Amino acid sequence: MNYISTKNKSTQYSIKDAIISGLPNDNGLYIPAKIPSFPSEIIDQFKGNSLSEIAYTVLLPYFSEEIESDVLKGICDDTFNFEIPLTPVTENIYSLELYHGPTLAFKDIGARFLARCLSYFAKNENKKVKVIVATSGDTGSAVAHGFYNLENIEVVILYPKGRISDLQEKQMTCLGGNITALRVDGNFDDCQRLVKTAFLDTDLRKKIKVTSANSINIARFIPQSVYYYYALSQLPSKLPVTISVPSGNFGNLTAGLYAKQTGLSIDKFIASTNINKVFTDYLETGEYTPVKSKKSISNAMDVGDPSNLARIQSLFPTIDDLRKEVISYSFTDEETRDTIKAVFNKSGYILDPHGAVGYLGLKKHLDSTPTRVGVFLETAHPIKFRETVEPVIGKTIDIPNQLIPLLDRKSHYTDISSEYTEFKSILLGC
Predict the structure, then answer these.
(1) What average pLDDT does the segment 185-195 reach?
(2) Among candidates 392, 381, 309, which has minimal Cα distance to 137?
(3) Which residue in 108, 153, 159, 162 could disulfide with 101, CB within 3.0 to 4.6 Å?
(4) How many domains does the chain divide into?
């Protein structure tokens, strides 16, 4: 399979080129030249298959031309080696728990898969590959741990000062080694702008080999499509399925839309957003207007100019076509807190702020269409947002075993401005 840019469909690239370069030179995003199709009998056979078996079948068409089948199977086995339970919360509403990996967030899936692909390709590179990534919270920790101590790879993580939780910061700043953390005086969009500027800097790219581990990288978002197949394989009901996706940079929703394009039977997607509702407004008005992101308690969704919108737009010729597939609602911090409390009091289930936004969007939709089954993505363990969740539920959350060894380790980070010249000098020097 070949890949093209969202801005130029005439030039084709291999998956290796797309993964290593991260972004095409035209500032578009890589997408498959053709989305594969899976017959219904193949999808039906996913029931009873393991997560890694489903992953291998789904990902083979995307990666087989550059990665041998046995190597790809090993990457899938190594990446998808933890559970993703589908947990009933209320009648006909299920939580797809994506937080049982090493860093307790859904980003573990895409980050670990990308890390193993890059490590495979980097063996034959004549200089180190420098992975640069902007994070609004969970991406940074997943990338740091996924790439830690991999040979021939260095990682530079940018995160916004004062806009992530203490545990998120600890996870990405306590490793050292080949991981460099930069705390940016700005918001996530500033961090993302620095990364994109670096990719367009021809002088920089002559001197160092850079790629991205954000969901702009093709090998980050495509593996995320796997858990949509896995979720539907676990559902006991044959009712139409609506999936609500807590949405910030929209890699998760894009992956779900790709899964549906291949033949997966999903009735409707809900893009559930917080007060950063640029996509919700776009669906309503048909006009896309990027804005400066606002700080919220669901910080991983604090994005005012989501990169993956370009990939979503490439799937749908018109805004009306997109509206047929995706509904979007936005919710305030107050509504998010109220939902965390209400769900806990009713069922004992503990939502993190992002999952709560996803639950809110699903509940709002199902209230008007009750003859459906709903799944919302629970994207991070609530312990990562204990400052918000514990006061709301009136209970201390137990610290998972994965976090305990990190708590006493010293953090290492460098404070920088949001000016590109400073960031570039650090990239050239580290």
Answers:
(1) 92
(2) 381
(3) 108
(4) 1
- Asked if residues 169 and 145 have their Cβ atoms less than 8 Å apart, the reply is no
**Pairing of the two strands 209-212 and 268-273:** unpaired
Domain that holds residue 289: 83-105+221-393
Whether residue 75 is contained in a domain is answered as no
Q: Where are the beta strands (DSSP E) in 188-304?
A: 209-212, 241-246, 268-273
Pair of tokens at residue 259: 């899964």
Residue 384 DSSP code: G
Neighbours of 151 (CB within 10 A): 9
Residue 264 lies in a domain: yes
8 Å CB contact between 289 and 278? yes
Any idea how long the chain is? 430
Q: What is the CATH number of the domain that holds 323?
A: 3.40.50.1100
Cα dihedral angle (402, 75, 218, 321), rounded to 10 degrees? -90
**pTM for the complete prediction?**
0.88
Residue 427 placed within a domain:
no
Please give the pLDDT value at position 341: 98
Q: What pLDDT is stored for residue 159 in this prediction? A: 95
Residue 327 binned pLDDT confidence (cut-offs 50, 70, 90): very high
Could you tell me the sign of the dihedral formed by the alpha carbons of 106, 109, 114, 116, in that order?
positive
Tokens linked to 430: 């580290």
More confident residue, 164 or 348: 348
Q: Residue 125's pLDDT band (boundaries 50, 70, 90)?
A: low
The neighbour count for residue 394, using CB atoms within 10 Å, is: 9
Question: Is pLDDT at 319 greater than 80 in this prediction?
Answer: yes
* Cα(395)–Cα(267) distance, integer angstroms: 37
Instruction: Give the per-residue pLDDT at 402.
Output: 85
Q: Does 236 map to a domain?
A: yes
Q: 389 with 350: CB under 8 angstroms?
A: yes
